[in-house]
């Protein structure tokens, strides 16, 4: 990574269905992509700018960038010094379980606005990451549930159902199925359109309207998603690159870093090493646990997020 940039993307076994990230980026640019999970990014310093819903959104220190699953967005620095943040990525099942128990939301829960100014919730996110680092399963699980509940109560609602009604939407859905099935050797846009009985430009327009990006961009995003699953299962990065359709490992490295935020080798090492590292750390004292849990239902603002160090993600 560039000078001063560092990131760690990992999982904690005691928080199933949740990815974790700490990062500081200066020149980093995230290309348009989606996540299968929710994004809850707590900005500690600087400003992040991300395209979402047709316009640029700005999240500064004390604010959260909130993105629902399968929602196309980008990411870049909004100030010369970049931005530093911590993020949790809970799965739709995790959020749905919490929403059903603690909110009155009916239907599929999600976030209404992409940016929320809430220094207290920012602090909670960083406490989740700290608890996961220290192997404190009780605190990590509790704090995660508290922050998700808080954000849903402040900025939550039922997501609209994505129904495939129009002919264009049906064609786009069929195109997506074809690309998923033939990821390693996809057809050209012209051939894909011909197979689906439409024109290339009609297919391009329908696909962008349905998924927020053109088919080739969506395919790169889907390849990285599948590569993550292969890396999680222990597949070597070079083999994963070939299996999902990238020309070689450097090709995977470039796109993986621009979407996930870390290179595939660093991503895979964290999956292998995080539990061993957690077992070597001493458990927090009972007084520390009680102090953290007593602060979770605090006021709307006024608390600043804790500072933290991040581990290198360079290969």
UniProtKB/TrEMBL annotation:
Q: Which InterPro entries match?
A: AraC-bd, AraC_XylS_family_regulators, Homeodomain-like_sf, HTH-like, HTH_AraC
UniProt key word DNA-binding: yes
Q: Which UniProt keywords apply?
A: DNA-binding, Transcription, Transcription regulation
Q: Which Pfam families match?
A: AraC_binding, HTH_18
Region of interest (Disordered), ranges: 281-315
Q: HTH araC/xylS-type domain location, by residue?
A: 173-270
SUPFAM superfamilies documented for this protein:
Homeodomain-like (SSF46689), Regulatory protein AraC (SSF51215)
Q: Bias regions of kind Polar residues — which residues?
A: 287-298
Q: What is this protein called?
A: AraC family transcriptional regulator
Supply the source organism for this entry.
Answer: Streptomyces cinereospinus
